[in-house]
Each structure stands twice: as structure tokens, then as C-alpha cells.
């Protein structure tokens, strides 16, 4: 009986799948006065995005860089950062539930009191593509230390 219970628990544990945990960026370009942003704050903002590409025009690279420089913020880079976004993956033609993020541009501009638009570069079958996503973590990326404090 004990052996059957142990076997059942081991089988159940082996059958569960966990999504990959997001990791801090490999590098960060800081447009913040003072210290550069903390990686966990960037990860928290990225992990707060809704699973839908926003129907807005994505600025050109030079315009986006000027905006983040003027508004304050960061551009985070990963070799690859899998992010569970089945709807966005489908919209991009990716045959998986994950998108592979290689860059996230985060400014301190809020769209409204509860969200901001961030721009992420993702792998798609047509090559790298920059898309606009709505993030609900509204902390100041320049001053945030890590996980958000309770409201």
C-alpha cells in the first residue's frame, strides 16, 4: 500500500509541467538618472503584460530611443526570454504558447493610472518583430527595487 502511494505521488509530480520562470535581463540600457534599473523590477513589469498585441503604431527605433531617453526608462535585452502568451503567439504565427522576447523598451509614461504600453521585440516566423503590449505593473522602472509593495 505504501509503495503504491509513493509511486502515485512520484508519477503525479512528474506529470505536472511548470512554465519557465522569467529571468533578469542579460543587459540593460539605462535612461534613468542615477542608478540603473533593477532586473527584478523589469521582469515584474514584463510579467504583468496582457496577452494581446495593442492596436497602435509602434514607433521607429530612433523615435522610440529618443522617447525613452526623454521620459526615463530602460531597454532590457535577453538572448531569449520565453513568456507564456498563447493569444499573442497565435497572432504572430508562432506554433507554441510562448513568445520569445529579446528586448523590452519600458518608459515611465503611463497610459492611464493602471497601465502603460511597453514595446517588446519577439521572434516570429517572419523574423524579429516589435509589438506594443499593455503592462499593469506601473512602478517607476528607474526607482523600483524589485517586487511591488502591496497597495
Topology:
Blueprint: H1 2-15, E1 27-30, H2 39-47, E2 49-53, H3 61-71, E3 73-84, H4 86-92, E4 98-107, E5 116-122, E6 129-135
- Helix content bin: 25-40%
Kindly report the spatial arrangement of strands forming the biggest sheet.
1-3-4-5-6-2
Q: Count every helix, treating DSSP H or I runs of 4 or more residues as helices.
A: 4
Oligomer: single chain
Q: SSE order in H/E notation? A: HEHEHEHEEE
Q: Which sheet architecture does the biggest sheet show? A: 6 strands, antiparallel
Radius of gyration in whole Å, from Cα? Answer: 18 Å
Count the E strands: 6
Q: How many domains is the backbone divided into?
A: 1
Structural class: alpha+beta
Strand content: 25-35%
> What is the overall pLDDT average?
86
Uncertain runs with pLDDT below 50, 5 residues or more?
Answer: 3-16, 147-151
Question: So what's the overall shape?
Answer: globular
Distance between the termini: 49 Å
Question: Concise description?
Answer:
This protein is α+β, with helices and mostly antiparallel strands and 151 residues long. The protein has helices at 2-15, 39-47, 61-71, 86-92, and strands spanning 27-30, 49-53, 73-84, 98-107, 116-122, 129-135. It has one domain.
Could you explain the architecture of this structure?
With 151 residues, the chain is of the alpha+beta class. The chain has one domain. Helix content is 27%, strand content 30%.
Amino acid at each position: 500500500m505504501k509503495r503504491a502511494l509513493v509511486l502515485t505521488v512520484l508519477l503525479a509530480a512528474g506529470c505536472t509541467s511548470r512554465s519557465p520562470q522569467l529571468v533578469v535581463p542579460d543587459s540593460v540600457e539605462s535612461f534613468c538618472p542615477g542608478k540603473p534599473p533593477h532586473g527584478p523590477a523589469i521582469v515584474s513589469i514584463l510579467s504583468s503584460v496582457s496577452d494581446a498585441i495593442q492596436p497602435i503604431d509602434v514607433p521607429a527605433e530612433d523615435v522610440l530611443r529618443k522617447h525613452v531617453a526623454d521620459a526615463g526608462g530602460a531597454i532590457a535585452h535577453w538572448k531569449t526570454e520565453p513568456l507564456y502568451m498563447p493569444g499573442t503567439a497565435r497572432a504572430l504565427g508562432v506554433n507554441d504558447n510562448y513568445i520569445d522576447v529579446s528586448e523590452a523598451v519600458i518608459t515611465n509614461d503611463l497610459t492611464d493610472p493602471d497601465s502603460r504600453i511597453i514595446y517588446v521585440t519577439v521572434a516570429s516566423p517572419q523574423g524579429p518583430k516589435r509589438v506594443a503590449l499593455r503592462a499593469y505593473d506601473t512602478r517607476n522602472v528607474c526607482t523600483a527595487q524589485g517586487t511591488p509593495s502591496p497597495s
